[in-house]
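tool=predict chain=A
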Amino acid sequence: MHETATERTRIIVGVDGSVSSVEALTQAGTIAVALNAHLEAITTWTYPVMLDPFDSSTDWSPKKDAQRILLDAVRAAFQGAPPDSFSQTVLPGAAARVLIEQSQDAAMLVVGSRGRGGFTGLLLGSVSAACAAHAHCPVLIVHAPEPATT
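tool=predict ok
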């Protein structure tokens, strides 16, 4: 009996374009292939507080920006060749809330240890800490690779 993509184990990855989220996507890809699981990369977006969503004087869109960030991260993580059972999704909402909601029907949530914002020097970012505390499945937190020392 063959499994369909919807019957497979689902591993989700939060992607924000940071070095640690690209590494998380790479590691999740390895795990998904080993487990014959479906891998889904998720990027979220919200309107910045100071931006009027009805202002037509700019063609910038947080959703389009999120789509570009996700596409760039997928290219970087898989050099253009993602695993066979792979999908990418851009969803509106705050990253931690969306990832925690999506974790309800996932076997694993993978996130980078530090995202694009926040304070340098913290062990975990606010999104990875919230996911570790509240996700409905196991959470793997991936650190960015250390730069080579010579």
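The longest helix spans residues 19-35. The beta strands are 10-14, 38-45, 86-92, 108-112, 139-142.
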